[in-house]
Amino acid sequence: MCTTEIRSRKLILRRSKVTDIGEYEERISSIDSENNWMKEEVPTTSGTRFVAGLDLCESFYRELVAPIIGQDFSDMQYSAALIGSGSEVLGFDTEMSADHHWGPRVMLFVGPDDLIKYRARVVQTLSARLPRKFLGYSTSYSIPLENGVQLLDDGEEGMINHRVEVMSIRDFVYDYLGFDVADEIAPADWLTFPEQKLLCLTAGRVFRDEAGLEEMRKKFAYYPQDVWLYLLASCWTRIEQEEHLMGRAGIVGDEIGSAIIGARLVRDLMRLCFLMERRYAPYPKWFGSAFRKLVAGGLLEPILQQALSAQGWEERQLHLSKAYEYAATLHNQLNITEPLRTTVSQFHGRPFLVISMGVFSQSITAKISDPAVRKLATRRLIGSVDLFSDSTDILADAVRRPALRGLYVDNAGGQ
User: Fold this and answer.
1) Spatial CA neighbour of 39 closest among 101, 91, 2
2) pLDDT per residue as tens digits for the range 190-224
3) Which residues contact 150 (CB under 8 A, 6 or more apart)?
4) What does each C-alpha distance from 248 to 1, 94, 316, 317, 361 come to in angstroms?
5) What pLDDT is recorded for position 48?
6) Among candidate residues 228, 294, 412, the one with its CA nearest the CA of residue 14
7) Cα dist. 36→161, 322, 386, 412 in Å?
C-alpha cells in the first residue's frame, strides 16, 4: 500500500464519528499520535492547484533544496523540517492560507559551528540558484511587513528572497519557547509553555534528521504523568467552579450571563477532552477543528453545539448535563482514580444539575506523586497559562515566560 493511501485511511479514521461510548477506548488506541491531517488538492481561484503546505514544502525541499545542498555543501550535517508557526504545520491550511506568510519554505537546523560556517553561504547560494516558481507558487517573498508577515513575490527580476532558514535547534527553541533545551524541563516550565507552541513544536514534518531534531521533539512530546494529572485536576476545577452558575444566572433572567458561562463550560469541557486524549490543543482559530478530530469530538460535538445554541438556561443545562456525563465516563476509562459517579445531581438541593462539586479534582490530585507537582497541587489549582489566560500577547510572547514562572516558583526558587 502506498504512503498516500495509508494517510488517506488514517484521515478517514480521524474524521469518523463515534456514536457508542463503549467504542471510545478501542478507537483512541487506534489513532496515530501525530497531529497532522492530510488534505486533498483543490484548484485555487488563480488556477494554481492548491497543495497542502506540508506536502508543498516537503516536495520543495526534496526536489530543489536538498540537491543544491548536497552538491555545494555536502559536508554539512543538518536536519530539515517544517515545524513551529503556521497553519500548514498543523495541516489546517486551505487556499485562503496562501494569501500571507505561506508558500514553499523549509527550516534547516545545524550545529553551532556549522551555523557560523554555512548560514550566510547557504542563503546566498539558494538565492542565486532556486527557480522563481515551484508547483505554480513563487519561491521568493516580500520583505517582512511591520508585523513580520511576508507575502509571495511574483516579480521576475532580482535575487530570490526565499524562506529557507538556517538555524540551530537551541536558538530556535529559545526564541520560540523562551527555554534552553540544554536544561531539564521543570513543572513550572511545562505549565508556562503555551499548548499551541508545544503542539507546533511536535507537529509538522521532519524531512531529514542529522542534527538531533527528533530527539529534541521527543523531549516535548507530551506532559509528564504528574503534570498531566495536575492539569486534568485544574480543568475539572474550572468546571466545578462554574457548573452551577450557568443556571443561577439564568434563573434570575440573565440569559446573556448564563450563555456566557455556558460557553465557558463548553470550552473547558473541550479542553478537558484534549487532556484526556493526551493531545495538545491549538489556539482558538483551530481549536474547534482540532476538537473535531478527537475521538471524544465525535461524541460531544453535536451535544456542545446544542448547548451553545440553546434558547434558555434549562435547555442549556439539559445539553451540558449530557456532556458532563460523557466526560465523567471518559474519565473513568482513564483508570487514574477509583470509578467516580457518572450521573448529574442537584447542587445542594437547588435546581442546577452538576457532575462533580470537587470530587473529580480532589480524586485526581490525590494520585500525584512527584513532590514538586504535589506542592503545586496544595495551592489553588490554576493549571497552565492556557487555563488562566487567553491573551494572545501573553501566550505568543516567549519573553514574558520567566514572569509567568513566578506563579509556580516560591521566593526560594522551589516549585
Assistant:
1) 91
2) 999 999 999 999 999 999 999 999 999 999 999 99
3) 100, 101, 141, 142, 143, 144, 163
4) 57, 42, 12, 11, 22
5) 74
6) 294
7) 28, 30, 22, 42
Q: Would strands 137-138 and 133-134 be described as parallel, antiparallel, or unpaired?
A: antiparallel
Strands in 226-329 per DSSP E: none
Instruction: Classify residue 268 as exposed, middle or buried by CB count within 10 Å of its CB (0-12, 13-18, 19+).
Output: buried
Residue whose C-alpha cell reads 505549565 in the numeric block:
191
The Cα-based distances of 223 to 171, 186, 228, 317 in angstroms read 22, 11, 6, 32
Domains of the chain, by residue range, sit at: 33-219, 225-383
For helices 255-276 and 295-309, give the axis angle rounded to 10 degrees: 180
Length of the chain: 415
CA dihedral 255, 257, 259, 265 (to 10 degrees): -150
Q: What is the mean pLDDT of each run of 10 residues along the chain (415 residues)?
A: 37 41 50 39 58 97 98 97 96 92 97 96 97 95 90 89 97 97 97 98 98 98 98 98 97 98 98 98 96 95 98 97 98 98 96 96 98 96 96 95 93 51
> Cα separations (Å) of 369 from 188, 275, 358?
16, 19, 20
pLDDT of residue 10: 37
Phi, psi of 117 (to 5 degrees): -75, -40
DSSP string, 77-114: -EEEEE-SSSHHHHT---GGGGGSS-SS-EEEEE-HHH
Task: Please write the tens of the pLDDT for every residue from 20-53.
Answer: 555 544 554 554 443 343 334 444 445 578 999 9
Closest CA to 235 of 261, 269, 205: 269
Sign of CA dihedral 179, 230, 260, 242: negative
* Residue 152, C-alpha cell as written in the block: 509571495
Buried b (16+ CB within 10 A) or exposed e, 336-357: ebeeeebebeebeeeebbbbbe
Select from 411, 410, 401 the least CA-distant residue to 185.
401
Which grid coordinates are listed for 139? Answer: 519561491
